[in-house]
Amino acid sequence: GWSENEINAPEIAAIAERCGADALILHPRTVRQGFSGTADWNLIRIIKKKVGIPVIGSGDIRKSEDAGSMIEQTACDGVMVGRGALGNPWLFKGINTFLSDRILSSTPSPMEREDIIRRHLEMDISLYGETMGVKSFRKHLLWYTKGLRGGSTFRKAAVSVTEISELLEMVHEYLHHLPNEGDSPSDFSIAY
Length: 192
Prior knowledge:
By secondary structure, the chain is mainly alpha-helical. The chain is elongated, with a radius of gyration of 20 Å. Helix 5 (110-128) packs antiparallel against helix 8 (164-175). The protein has a three-stranded parallel beta sheet, covered by helices on one side. The chain is built from eight helices and three strands; from the N terminus they run H-E-H-E-H-E-H-H-H-H-H. The longest helix is centred in the middle third of the chain and has 19 residues, at 110-128.
């Protein structure tokens, strides 16, 4: 619905089922809410009880255990990942591992992170060409480094890079100088 006072998802779900929908995906946020606040997983649970077709939940899946929590709390049939995958393609493997074995995945090593960044950049370049591919990719690079030590400094420098070789060199230099867990933030410095 448009706001928390105008929730119409249960009625729309019932209409969709009557019209022959095979499944529903629900991202339980209002229009007014936008990307702020939290998704109302209770609405997924309500709709799951109301319809007989599979219900896939979406919203606030940022860690592998979030998917397990959503399924436990709502009894939904599946989970859809949206913005939580930005800069975190490892999330999908982590979700699969957590749901099948109840094991939390570790965060990727700097080398694994660099490999994925390189592959992603290559795909953007093959799709858009070198100039537009690098420009398009920079927004993804911001996500890949979000939450990492020194990420803010790195991102400020990376947003203006236009050459593939310079960008890859910056990525390599940054990721391979990240401090180990337990190092103090003052142990980390790299100049761009």
